Automatic annotation (TrEMBL):
May be involved in transcriptional regulation. Keywords: DNA-binding, Metal-binding, Nucleus, Repeat, Transcription, Transcription regulation, Zinc, Zinc-finger. The lineage of its organism: Eukaryota, Metazoa, Chordata, Craniata, Vertebrata. GO terms for cellular component: nucleus. It comes from Danio rerio. It is found in: Nucleus. This is Zgc:173619 protein. Gene3D superfamilies: Classic Zinc Finger. One of its GO terms (molecular function) is RNA polymerase II cis-regulatory region sequence-specific DNA binding. GO terms for biological process: regulation of DNA-templated transcription. Residues 66-93, 94-121, 122-149, 150-177, 178-205, 206-217 form the C2H2-type domain. Its main location: nucleus. Pfam families: zf-C2H2, zf-H2C2_2.
Amino acid sequence: MAFIKEESEDVKIEETFTVKQEDLQEQTDLIEENEESKEEEHHVKIEEKNNLQTDDILKRRDKNHFTCTQCGKSFGRKTNLKIHMRIHTGEKPFTCNQCGKSFNQSSNLYTHMMIHTGEKPFKCTQCGKSFNRSSDLHQHMRIHTGEKPFTCTQCGKSFYCSSHLHQHMRIHTGEKPFTCSQCGKSFSQSSNFKQHMRIHTGEKPFTCTQCGKSFSQ
């Protein structure tokens, strides 16, 4: 009988332990589920916040878009649109007090003034040649690097500056925008036009150092 009683008590202890284990597991599952729910809620809040921030940025971008009514070009600042509009209106409020030439931007006037002052702050590290504009130095550097980013779509010939490509394209288009007012002859390049004009003016700027004879070219 003592053995049966002892076995019965062991069964009760085991059942109690099993119930407690089940309760503990259930509580653990609830805690994990609650934590997962909180984590998911946290991610949702972050995503909603990011979406709101993105919407806010887009709204501000739309609000800050200043568009030209003439050509449709857009700007982030009203002042940039105002400067751009001078291209269409022809307004040039910045005038050189040395020669009277006018410009639509103060920065262009500042660069122009260097012609009068002789200032050339941008110097080539390869050959020492100086320029009054950083863009001119950048273009000049291509002579040393061999870079020719402007390519003719007709024949594939490349150039280190866009103006040379523009001049070259006249070979293909047949355009001759420089016309002599004396004889009506036209030229595709201004240098050829200037050279031609010396026939009419009689100018001979090239002089021989040996005999003193002068030539027009």
